[in-house]
Design brief:
Layout lengths: L7 H4 L1 H14 L4 E17 L2 E19 L2 E7 L4 H18 L16 E5 L11 H16 L6 E17 L4 E19 L2 E7 L6 E3 L4 H5 L6 H12 L7 E7 L1 H13 L4 H4 L29 E4 L20 E6 L2 E2 L20 E2 L8 E2 L4 E3 L6 H6 L3 E13 L5 E13 L2 E7 L2 E5 H6 L1 E4 L6 E10 L4 E9 L2 E8 L3
Parallel strand pairs: 4-6, 9-16
Antiparallel strand pairs: 1-2, 1-5, 2-3, 5-6, 6-7, 6-8, 9-23, 10-11, 10-15, 11-12, 13-14, 16-17, 17-18, 17-19, 19-23, 20-23, 21-22
C-alpha cells in the first residue's frame, strides 16, 4: 500500500520537465535531462516538555542539465511558466558553452535504456496527514517520562518527515515519476553535573532512526516505552569511569557499525572521489581505479553490498537522478574489493556502466555520486553470542563523534557508552569511549559479524558532499561486529 503521493497529471510537472528538455535541445544541447520536483519537510522538537520548534517547508521547481561539446551546463528555477522554463534551459546551454574553456577530457555518458515508469515508497500511513496534536503529544510524553528520572538535566524528543516527488525527462526519451517518503524519530537524554555532561540517545544518535516509510515506522519505535531507560543511562554515565587506553578486542553495536561502514567504506568507494572530482571539498579516497578485484579491503568474513532496492532504506528508489534503474551491487565480496559506486559520467573510466548512484539534493542541484544502501551482509550469531564468545575486550554503543582524513583511511570514532567484557560478560560501565584505526587494517581484523536477528537498516539523512554543498539521504544495513587488536581510548 502507498498513500500520500501526488498525481503527476494534476501537478503537470512531467510536462514541465519535458518542456525544459525540448527547450534545451532547441538551444543547442546535444543531450538534456530535467527534473521537476516538489519537496515537503516537517520537523518537530520538544525539549523538557516545551515545544522547541515546528518547522515546515515546501519547495517546487525544475533543474535542467545539458551537454554541449562534452561539457556540463546546469540551471534551475522555481518559476514554472513557459517563458522561465525556456530561459532556464537556454542558460544551462550557455553555461555548458562557457565550460568548454576548462581543461580535461570531454564528458562521455555510458548508455542507459530510457524508461517510462512510476515508482513510490511503500507508505501505510501518510506522515503529513497525521494530526499535529498526536505528534506533539507523543513527543511531550516521551520528554515527560525522561524528566521523571532523578538527576536528568535535559529531555529532548523529535520527529522528522520528508517527501520528494520528482518527474524526470531526458532527450533519450525517459519519462519517470518517483515519490520518496521518509519518516524518523528519536529521543535524547542529557545529564550534567560537576562540569561533566553525558548523553544517551535512542534508537540512535542524531535524531534517532529514519526509514523510507510512513508514520507506521514511528509507531514501532517505542519512544515513550524506552524513555525512562535512556534517561537512567545518561545519569549513570556521570558516575562511570573514563574508558581506559589500551589495545584490545572491540565489539561494536549495530548503530556504531552503521557509521563505521558509512565513513570508512561508503565514501571511499564513490568513484568521483577516486577520480579527484570531489577532492577540493569532500576529499578523495585511498582506493585507485585499478583496485577492483585485487585489493583486500577486509577479512573474508566481510561482504558489503550497495542495494538501492532494499525495503526501508533511505537510499532506496526506483531510478536514480540520471534515469538509471535501481540495482543491487556487490562492493566487497569475502573481503576483496569488487566495485565502485558510479554515475553515467564516471563508470566508463573503469569499464562499467552506471550502477545507479547519481542523486541530487532536490531539483535545484546537479546529481552527484551518493551512497544508496551500503550494507554489511549478515554473518552468524547475535550480539549476546558475540559478547559471550569474547574473553576480554570493550563493547561500545551508539555513536557520538567521528573524524576521518580526506582519503578515508585514518579515523577516530567516539561512542556514548562502553562496557568492559570479561569472560563473556559485560562488567564495568565506561563513559567517553573512543577508538582509532586504519581502514584496511581495522576491517581486516574483523573476526565476527552478527546475524540477521540483529541486522538493522539504519538511515543517515545528513550526509554532506559537493560544492555547493548538498545533503544526501543514505542507508546502511548493519549487524554488530567484533575486531581484534584495536586501539581504544586516548593514547
Amino acid at each position: 500500500m502507498s498513500v500520500g503521493a501526488p498525481d503527476p497529471e494534476e501537478t503537470g510537472l512531467l510536462d514541465i520537465a519535458k518542456t525544459a528538455v525540448a527547450a534545451a535541445r532547441a538551444a543547442g544541447a546535444e543531450f538534456a535531462d530535467a527534473r521537476a520536483g516538489a519537496d515537503e519537510r516537517e520537523s518537530l522538537t520538544v525539549r523538557n516538555q516545551e515545544m522547541e520548534g515546528i518547522d515546515r517547508s515546501t519547495s517546487t521547481g525544475v533543474g535542467v542539465r545539458v551537454l554541449v561539446g562534452g561539457r556540463w551546463g546546469f540551471a534551475s528555477t522555481s518559476r514554472l511558466d513557459d517563458a522561465d522554463i525556456e530561459r532556464t534551459a537556454r542558460l544551462a546551454v550557455e553555461m555548458a558553452k562557457a565550460a568548454q574553456r576548462l581543461p580535461g577530457d570531454p564528458v562521455s555518458l555510458t548508455p542507459v535504456e530510457p524508461a517510462q515508469a512510476s515508482w513510490r515508497t511503500v507508505v501505510e500511513e501518510d506522515p503529513f496527514t497525521v494530526p499535529l496534536e498526536e505528534k506533539v503529544a507523543l513527543l511531550m510524553e516521551a520528554s515527560r517520562t525522561m524528566q521523571g528520572v532523578a538527576g536528568l538535566s535535559f529531555a529532548e524528543a523529535g520527529l522528522d518527515f520528508f517527501r520528494r516527488s520528482t518527474w524526470f525527462a531526458s532527450s533519450d526519451g525517459a519519462e519517470i515519476e518517483q515519490v520518496v517518503t521518509n519518516s524518523g524519530g528519536g529521543i535524547e537524554a542529557v545529564a550534567v553535573a560537576d562540569g561533566d555532561m553525558q548523553r544517551r540517545s535512542y534508537p540512535n544518535s542524531f535524531r534517532g532512526h529514519v526509514k523510507a516509510a510512513g508514520f507506521e515506522h514511528i509507531r514501532t519505535l517505542g519512544l515513550i516505552e524506552e524513555a525512562e531507560r535512556i534517561g537512567s543511562e545518561a545519569v549513570a554515565l556521570l558516575a562511570a569511569p573514563e574508558c581506559p587506553s589500551e589495545v584490545t578486542t572491540l565489539v561494536l553495536d549495530s548503530g556504531q557499525m552503521e557509521l563505521q561502514i558509512h565513513e570508512s567504506i561508503g565514501h571511499p568507494i564513490e568513484l568521483d572521489r577516486v577520480l579527484g572530482m570531489e577532492e577540493a571539498y569532500a576529499g578523495s579516497s585511498w582506493l585507485s581505479p585499478g583496485d577492483r578485484g585485487t585489493v583486500r579491503y577486509a577479512s573474508d568474513l566481510v561482504s558489503i553490498t550497495a542495494d538501492a532496492t532494499l525495503p526501508g532504506g533511505l537510499g532506496t528508489f526506483g531510478f536514480d537522478d540520471e534515469g538509471v534503474p535501481a540495482q543491487r551491487v556487490p562492493i566487497i565480496v569475502d573481503g576483496i574489493f569488487e566495485n565502485f559506486l558510479s554515475s553515467r559520467e564516471t563508470a566508463g573510466v573503469v569499464g562499467q556502466t552506471s550502477n545507479a548512484t547519481s542523486r541530487a539534493d532536490g531539483w535545484s542541484n546537479l546529481p552527484l555520486i551518493r551512497m544508496t544502501n551500503v550494507s554489511i551482509e549478515p554473518g552468524e550469531g547475535s550480539l549476546a553470542e558475540i559478547i559471550g564468545d569474547t574473553d576480554e575486550g570493550i563493547f561500545m554503543s551508539t555513536n557520538s563523534s567521528w573524524s576521518i582524513d580526506d582519503k578515508r583511511i585514518n579515523f577516530q570514532f567516539g561512542c556514548e557508552q562502553a562496557w568492559r567484557i570479561e569472560h563473556g560478560r559485560l562488567t564495568t560501565l565506561y563513559k567517553n569511549p573512543n577508538y582509532t584505526g586504519i581502514t584496511p587494517e581495522f576491517w581486516g581484523s574483523c573476526d565476527a559479524v552478527g546475524g540477521a536477528e540483529d541486522w538493522v537498516v539504519w538511515g543517515t539523512p545528513n550526509c554532506g558532499k559537493g560544492q555547493p554543498g548538498q545533503i544526501g539521504r543514505v542507508g546502511h544495513g548493519a549487524s554488530p561486529g567484533r575486531f581484534r587488536n584495536v586501539q581504544v581510548g586516548v593514547r
